[in-house]
Amino acid sequence: MAQDAAISKGFDARGFEGGAALECAGLACLRGGRILFRGVSLKLEAGEALHVTGPNGLGKSSLIRVIAGLLPAYAGEVKANGRMALADEKVALDAGQPLARALGHWARLDGSVEAEIADALAAVDLAHLADVPVRFLSTGQRKRALLARISLSRAGIWLLDEPANGLDTASIARLGDLMARHRVGGGIVVAASHQPLPLEGAQTLPLADFVPVARAGEAE
Amino acid sequence: MIGALGTLIRRELMLAFGLGGGARGSAGFVMPIIFFLAVATIYPFAVGPDAQLLGRTGGGVIWVAALLASILPIDRLVQADVDQGMIDQYVVRGLSEELIALAKTIGHWLSFGPPLMLAAIISAGLLGQSAEQLIIVEIGLACATPALAALGVMIAALTAGLRHGAALGGLLLLPLAVPLLIFGAGSLTPGSQNGLLLLAAASLLLTVICPIAAGAAIRAGRE
C-alpha cells in the first residue's frame, strides 16, 4: 500500500542530545484526598521502553502527568535526562489553523525546521492533509497529527497516554514504527495503555500492583 | 526564552487577527472595537445633539466605552488554551506560566490597544471632542490599554474552568479598572495634568503585577 511507502521514507529519531535517561523512585500520587498509587519506581536507559498497564481509572494518566511535571508528586522524585514530549487526549493544535501551520507553532518552539514537518506528516500518512484546518480532521487523523507533533519535538523522552486510542490497524503499525525508530535513535518511550501496544522488548509496569488495597476493588 | 516568548506572541497575534484561518472566531479583535464605536455612536442619541454637553462629557464616555470593550475578549484568552492542552504542552517544554501570561498580555495588547486608539479618533469626532481633548484621550489610552490587557489576561486565567466565567470576568474587571477610569477621565479636566501621571503609574503597576498573578492562577488551575 501507498502508506507503507510513506513509512519507509519517513525519518529517523534525531536531533536530541543522545543518552536520554529517566528514573523515578517511590512515586506516589494523591488526588481528591485519595492515594491513587504509591511506591512506583522505574529506571529507563536510552533505547528502552515501558508499558504502563492497567484498567481505566487506575491512575495511568496521572502517573504520566506526574512524570511530565504537570502534577506534583505526593512522594518520590522524577529524575530525567533529556527533554520530554507529552501526548495525551488533548491534541494541542489550533483548530482553525491548517495542519502544517498548527504543527509549525510547536516546531518553532522545539527548534525543528520546516522540512521536518512534511517528513513527520508523511510518516503518519497525513501529508495530503497539510493544508486542511485541524478542525476538519477525523478523530483518528487528529491522533496521528498528535504523533507527528511528538516526533517533531526532538525530545528524548516520549510520554504517551493511550497512544493507540482511535487508531486503525494500519495506524497502530505506524505508531509502532515511530516508537521503534525513536528507540533506535537513543530515545525513551513511556506509554500508558489498557490495550496491547507494538512495543517490542518493553518493560511492563502493572499499575494495579501499586494501588493501595482499599482502592483495588474500584478499578472493576 | 526570548525566542519562545516571540513564538508565543506570534501565535496570539495570528489567532487574534484571524490569520491563516483564525481559530477563536476569525479576527476576534474586531468585536471589541465595533462595540467601542457603537457606544460612542448611541451616546449622542441618548443625550441629544448639544455640542457643548457632548464636548464636556464625551471624553468620559470614551473611557467608559474602552473599559466595557476590554471585557469582551476575556472569555477567549485562556480557557481555549487550557481546553486544547496548549498550556500543558508549554509547561512540559519548561516554559513558566508567567512567561505564558506575559506572552498573552503582549499579544492581547497588540490586538486591542492600537485598534482601540485608532477607533478613539472616530469616537472623538462623534462625541464632539476638540483636538486638544483627543490628544489627551489618546495619551491616556496609550497608558491605560496595557493595563486593561494585563487585567483581561489575569481575569481570564482566574476564571478559566469556571462555569459562567465570562459573566464573572466582567464583574471582576470593572472594579479593578476603576483607578484607570478615574485618572484617565480625570486627566480631561482642564488644568489637571497630574491625572496622566497617576494614570501611567497605576497602569505600570497593573501591567507588572497582572502577568505574575495570571501565571499563578494558570498553575493553580491545573489541579
Plain-language structure description:
The complex is a heterodimer of chains A (220) and B (223). With 220 residues, chain A is α/β, with parallel strands linked by helices. Chain A has 6 helices and 8 strands, in the order αβββαββαααβαββ. The model of chain A is unreliable at 1-15 (pLDDT under 50). Chain B is mostly helical. Chain B has one domain. Helices cover 80% and strands 0% of the residues of chain B. Chain B contains 10 helices and no strands. Chain B is elongated, with a radius of gyration of 18 Å. The two termini of chain B are 25 Å apart. The chains are: A alpha/beta (220), B mainly alpha (223).
CATH topology of chain A: Rossmann fold
Gap from first CA to last CA of chain B: 25 Å
Question: What does the largest sheet of chain B look like?
Answer: none
The CATH architecture of chain A can be given as: 3-Layer(aba) Sandwich
What does the secondary structure layout of this molecule look like, with pairings?
The complex is a heterodimer of chains A (220) and B (223).
Chain A: H1 2-8, E1 21-31, E2 34-44, E3 49-53, H2 60-68, E4 75-81, E5 84-87, H3 99-110, H4 114-123, H5 139-152, E6 157-161, H6 169-184, E7 188-192, E8 203-206
Parallel strand pairs in A: 3-7, 3-8, 5-6, 6-7
Antiparallel strand pairs in A: 1-2, 1-4
Chain B: H1 2-16, H2 30-47, H3 51-69, H4 74-77, H5 79-84, H6 86-92, H7 97-126, H8 131-159, H9 165-186, H10 194-221
Write a compact overview of the structure shown.
Chain B: One of its GO terms (cellular component) is plasma membrane. The complex is a heterodimer of chains A (220) and B (223). Chain A is an alpha/beta fold and 220 residues long.
Labels describing this entry:
A: 220 residues; alpha/beta; Rossmann fold; 5-stranded parallel sheet; 6 helices; globular; B: 223 residues; mainly alpha; 0% strand; transmembrane (chain B); transmembrane helix (chain B); cell membrane (chain B)
